[in-house]
Amino acid sequence: MTLEEEVEQREAHIKSIEEIRETILRAKDSVWVINNEIDKKNNSADGKLTKEGKGNVERNVGHLEIILATQYIAESGEDLSELQAAVVTGKALLAEETE
């Protein structure tokens, strides 16, 4: 491999890491939505999710599951714990709502 090819390969790798980090950062919007719906539920008079809130949680949990199942994200070595925790919390919230 020539020096030029090696530099090109490293630059491509760096770009991939940056893209992975950007994807993870954007996925944190879904974490915010789930946490916001929990706050709304906890502050509501009946202590329940609205129909819209339930849909928001379902969609955002689904989005996070897709992100976490993406091989290059899962194998990136980046901290995914906040995303994983939001999936667990969101699923527990949805299960609680169906009881």
Shape: rod-shaped
Q: How many beta-strand runs?
A: 0
Overall mean confidence score, pLDDT: 90
Order of helices and strands: HHHH
Number of helices: 4
In whole angstroms, the N-to-C terminal distance is 61 Å
Compute the number of structural domains: 1
The proportion of strand residues reads under 5%
* Quaternary class: single chain
- Global structural class: mainly alpha
Helix share, percent: over 70%
CA radius of gyration is: 18 Å
Low-pLDDT runs of 5+ residues are none
Major sheet attributes = none
Could you characterize what this model shows?
α1 (about 5-45) runs antiparallel to α2, α1 runs parallel beside α4 (about 80-99) and α2 (about 50-70) runs antiparallel to α4. The protein is rod-shaped. It has one domain (about 5-99). The chain has helices at about 5-45, 50-70, 70-75, 80-99. By secondary structure, the protein is mainly α. It starts with a helix and ends with a helix. It contains four helices and no strands. It is about 85% helix and about 0% strand.
